[in-house]
Structure formats: C-alpha cells, structure tokens
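Q&A log
Question type: sequence-to-structure
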Amino acid sequence: MADIPDRRARRRAETLEEILAIALEVMAEEGVAGLSLSAVARRLGIRPPSLYKYFPSRHAVYDALFERGQRAYLEAVRRGAAGREPGLTAMADSLEAGARWVMANQALAQLLFWRPVPGFEPSAEAYAPALAVHDHFTALTAAAIERGELHPDAASEEGQALGSSLIAGLLSQQLANEPGAAFEEGRFTRWVTRLPAVLAALYPPR
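Response status: OK
Response body:
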C-alpha cells in the first residue's frame, strides 16, 4: 500500500507534463494569447473542470510554461559558453546557443521575451531563471572587460540594456519575417554571432 501515493504522484506528474505539452501545441497553432483551457481539456480527453485540479487558471499554465522555458533557455546559453575562454568569444557562442533555442521553441520564446498575453506576469519563482540568465551575461561582459575586450561602460545599465536590445531586435525581426528559416540562412540570425563585435565597437576598450 505504501507505493499507492507514489503511483498517484507519478500519474499526476505525467498528467501535468501532458497538459503543458498540449498547451504548447495550442499556442503554436492559435498564437500564444490564444491558449484555451477548454481546447487543452478536449485534446487531453477530459472535461474542462477536471483541468482545474492541475492548474487553477490559464495564467497558471502560462506561469508553469514560463518557468520551464526560462530554465531551458538558461541551460542553452550556459551550454553555449561552456569550455570557452571567458569574454567575447564565450559571449558569441552563448548568444548563438540561445538564439538557436529561440528558433526551435518559437511559441515558448514569445511567452518569455515578448509579453504577448495581456495581464500575465510571471511569479517570482518562474522569473528566477531569467535573473540567472541576466547574471550569466553580466559575468561574460565582466570577463570581456577584464580581458581588455570591452570598455567598463559596457557593464553599465545602459550597456546591458543596449546589448539585450540588440539580440532581441535581431530575433524579433527573424521571427516576424522568416520564422521558418534555418539559423544559418536567416537574414537576421546570421548576425547573432557578430553582436559582441558590435558591442566592442560601441564600447571599445581603452
């Protein structure tokens, strides 16, 4: 009898995973803001009220997906920099890994970076991996400054905002104009690895 709660917990975890997977399917087909819990329940083969045992609201589903997406994006950018010399080279590889993740997970990326759902604000727990992403790129910037690749002003609030705007701008243009293009062939994604050089031109070392 002791393993009955464990079986129930496993079954609940499996159902949660299935709900989130279906939610992503609906978002990809109908747009991120077009997520409907009724559609999710229908595809899952249950009545809509039964879905509320797992997620009390549509925003709760968004919150779970936001945290999952941010953790996956954080893993991608960390993996991109792993084993590289710290500085602009690691930054370029990290940006590329993150951009490739975005292109492969477009619906989820929209939820993370473009606020397509009116009124949705991620919880502090869901947002925590995003802060870790910020810390990751802050550390890469600091390493580039220490190596004499960037001016210290690149680490300022303005410099950090500019850097994030550059990558967000390229990805926004790519998703808006060529969402189906391969990373290497995209008119905008092929510039991603050059962004650290752009940042160095804007903040040249002394």
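Response note: The CA atoms of residues 44 and 169 lie 37 Å apart.
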